[in-house]
Design goal:
Blueprint (H helix, E strand, L loop, with lengths): L1 H4 L1 E3 L11 E7 L5 E7 L4 E8 L2 E6 L3 E7 L12 E5 L3 H12 L6 H14 L16 H53 L1
Antiparallel strand pairs: 1-2, 2-3, 3-4, 4-5, 5-6, 6-7
Helix pairs in contact: 2-3
């Protein structure tokens, strides 16, 4: 359920904090969150995968560790307060790798975290080694969003063309029906 519902949430993802990082948020079922902290160059510096009060944390300095959500966490995810950081909870890493491995069409951020967690448990999923999709830097975000909007515009134009083609057909059919009706009335009236 967590993997099938995991989607990107575009809230505050373009704003950089005072430490030079911006948040990329994915939300899934059972209040699961994956928060990726990305610097201005598009480099992922930290990722937090929280589900069921548990946290799998990846940082550039420490690699993959685990812990519990701090009691002060509430509302929209920001940097989680993680208690009891531990790097030996192999079962939690295996479970999180199974969840991450079930995500369909993971973007760049989800692939990155999945690869780090899979490496931690000694797995090497070939499917995740394909070229990642999704933006990495701010220009990529803007280009992707622009292409999405232009795609919607072209689709709307095509639908409009189809509708106007259908309207023309209905007008022709209605005109033919009207001509037949008038012709029938004239024929009856003249005989």
């Amino acid at each position: 359920m967590v993997a099938s519902r995991l989607r990107r949430v575009y809230v505050g993802d373009t704003e950089f904090r005072e430490d030079g990082l911006r948040r990329v948020w994915h939300r899934g079922g059972a209040a699961a969150d994956i928060i990726s902290w990305v610097d201005e160059g598009g480099v992922i510096m930290r990722q937090e995968f929280t589900f069921g009060g548990l946290v799998v944390l990846w940082t550039r300095d420490q690699g993959v560790t685990s812990g519990l959500e701090g009691s002060d966490n509430a509302g929209m995810p920001t940097a989680k307060l993680v208690d009891a950081i531990d790097d030996s909870d192999q079962q939690l890493f295996v479970i999180s790798s199974q969840i991450l491995g079930r995500i369909e069409n993971p973007d760049f951020y989800l692939r990155h975290l999945a690869m780090r967690v899979f490496e931690r448990v000694g797995k090497s999923p070939e499917a995740l080694r394909e070229h990642p999709t999704g933006e990495v830097t701010m220009p990529h975000i803007l280009m992707e969003r622009a292409s999405l909007n232009s795609g919607r515009f072209h689709q709307a134009e095509e639908e409009e063309d189809l509708e106007s083609g259908h309207i023309g057909l209905w007008i022709a059919v209605a005109g033919l029906a009207m001509s037949l009706f008038i012709g029938a009335i004239w024929y009856v009236a003249s005989h």
